[in-house]
Amino acid sequence: MIAGASEWTHGVPFGLASSAAFGLMGFLVHQASLAAPTQEIAFFRCAASVVALAPLIVKLLSKLWGKDAFIVWLRALAGAMSVLCYFTNLGNISVPNAAALANTAPFFVVLFSRVFLRESLSRQTQLGLLVVFAGAFLLQSPAGSAIPLHSLAVGIGGAVSASVAYLALKQAAQRFPQSLIVWAFSVVTAAVVISSPSGARAITGLSLQLSFLAIGLLGLFAHLWITRSYFLLPSSVASTLGLTAILWGGLREAVAFAKIPSVVSMAGHGAILVRVYLLRGKVHEKIPGRQD
Fold it and tell me: Is residue 284 part of a domain?
């Protein structure tokens, strides 16, 4: 079937809600990283999803070893790598800049979806690609936020991993229950993180525990909502809606610390958000049989 008005109407709110949750989660992660390693935060963020979704997927576990299950595990592993990169940057640079680098992923999503999924690219889509990279360049320029080269490399590497995860998510969302996809992603990410040098340890202090709980819940709903948006929308559009997380994260950081970004930084963020407008309703794709 062809993605129609109804799917767009329902899919866009899920994409925007997901980006809002990711934006708030990113702000909380950045704050929590002052008291705990980012790998530890990532572990507990995923552990919350594993526990919360366990009752819903017990009878579905056999699907993870059946036909086409490879796509679910590819989404989980690529997603785990992107999360590690994102959380690492949240501990080293500001929330909007970490989000901006992570959200260059739509460039790779559109590129790979064009090559592998045969999604069409309109002129507005092509213009949007140029705009988003212009915005990312402004953010890392000396006149902008002067993002360190190491953080820039980590961010772009995470974006490539995320693009693979998103394309796999698009395919998985048509074949597997969404709760199962999120659960598998959370299990793999938690396993990867806990095997890292810093691992995970018991958290102490009520405020930190509440922060971890909020991060876990926001991550859970954000991933359920983004999975739904990929179920309803073309890959390139669903990933582009995630760019609004830059606005949410930056807005919360600005309000919390009365921190006004530089003009060039605001131009960079604005350029990336313009891409959301340029890609509105311009990409269509055939959507295979689905499973709710």
Answer: no
Check if the beta carbon of residue 93 is closer than 8 Å to that of residue 167: no
Pairwise CA distance, residues 109 & 285, whole Å: 14
288 belongs to a structural domain:
no
For the cut 60, the answer to whether the pLDDT of residue 109 exceeds it is yes
Could you tell me if 245 and 17 are in contact, meaning their C-beta atoms sit under 8 angstroms apart? no
Report how far residue 29's alpha carbon sits from residue 23's, in angstroms, rounded to the nearest whole number: 10
Q: Are 269 and 100 in contact (CB under 8 A)?
A: yes
Q: Give the rounded distance of the alpha carbon of 138 from its chain centre.
A: 21
Assess whether pLDDT exceeds 70 at residue 59: yes
Please report whether residue 290 resides in a domain.
no
What pLDDT score does 67 carry? Answer: 79
CA distance 283 to 270: 22
Whether residue 27 is contained in a domain is answered as yes
State residue 124's pLDDT score: 63
Count of domains observed in the chain: 1
User: Residue 18 and residue 15: Cα distance in Å, rounded?
Assistant: 5
**pTM of the model as a whole:** 0.71
DSSP H helices, 195-289, are: 206-232, 235-241, 245-257, 263-278
| Ramachandran region, residue 281 (left: φ > 0; alpha: ψ -120 to 50; beta: rest) | left
List, for residues 157-211, the tens digit of each pLDDT value: 998 998 899 888 888 988 899 899 999 999 998 888 777 655 455 555 667 778 8
Is the distance from CB of 230 to CB of 15 less than 8 angstroms?
no
- Domain span at residue 140 reads 5-278
To 5 degrees, how large is the angle CA 40–CA 53–CA 200? 15
